[in-house]
Protein: Azurin
Amino acid sequence: MKDIQRFLMILATVLLVSCGDEKKEQETITIGEEGTVERSTTANPTNTATDTAGTAAEGIERQDGFVQVNLTGNDQMQFNLKEIRVKAGETVRLTLKHVGQLPENAMGHNFVLLQKGTDIVDFATKAASASGNEYIPEDTDQVIVHTEMIGGGEETSIEFTAPEAGTYDFICSFPGHYIQMQGKFIVE
Ligand SMILES: [Cu+2]
Structure:
């Protein structure tokens, strides 16, 4: 009799699956030998990406017919977004705001969206010598779109159509900045 009780207790693993429209959560309750209850909650894998990244939806607002991307750059050579997700063919309005104070010639920032497969280091090296053209190589076919270069306190916007699905890189092409100022532009 005692053995049966123990057997049942060990086997008393309750699996609760609650399904909502937006959220799926799996809660596992395991009752151990000494009656201890262990709970573990596992978020649905499909939600994990946005939950853990935290930045996925940050800075991005969907409005009627377009997606507004709010990108900032600071005096510490940092973009606020490491990842920007949009949908193919969607109209993207990207606003780059320089939230620092240093002038353009010392801490200029821009947003440069590169063609798929572009070698970032190679591109950035060419860009660094294009000081007369806001650090965009004049004859390049590797840039899909870019903003102007701005300094502290300034803001600039561009509008473009999201390219075909895939993962693209974006950088700031001010000399040396791409090392820290780069991210993924993901088109779904
Ligand atoms: Cu920069």
